[in-house]
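agent> Task received from the user: take the single chain below, predict its 3D structure, and emit structure tokens. No templates, no multimer pairing.
agent> Plan: (1) validate residues, (2) run structure prediction, (3) serialize to tokens, (4) report one or two observations.
agent> Step 1 OK, no nonstandard residues flagged.
tool_call: predict_structure(input=
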Amino acid sequence: MPCSDITEALELRIDYDDRLSGYALNKRSCGRTIGGETLLPMILGVHVDQLVAQPIDEVVPEFERYGEVDQFLLMKQFGAICAALSVYRGDGAGGLGQYFVLHSLEHDEVETRLVGEVSIEAVVEEIKACKGCGSGAKHDHDDSAESAGGTCQVKPRKPRTLPTL
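)
tool_result: status=success, residues=165
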């Protein structure tokens, strides 16, 4: 039986060239992975500035071929990662009430590691607001949830229906 805790923990690893070297998105209470690792090979080694600036359908090849549930999970992962990267870059506060709440920031000779909590409510609102283009980023004309740090680069296409939680 699934647990009722909807809080998610994100660990993000960035190398010293500011490229994503790994991430884990899990339920905080039970450690269950959210959405698998479908996104990881597409973003591994990509510079943080490039990730934050691109909409998801430029990051994920043939995004539209994925089913609704997979699109939702990809957008959820991508939104959480972009929110954490915005904190890393100094674009986001990372405090209570934010999309990504930073709990710890550590570094060694190889990489920087951010660990924090993802506001699922904010992620879901962001995805709902962007269901027309699938970018997961805030539109300039949109007054929805706080931006994950990017700007929608995709002109709206035919609307997609996303699963409701």
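agent> Step 4: summary for the user.
The chain has one domain: 8-129.
agent> Done.
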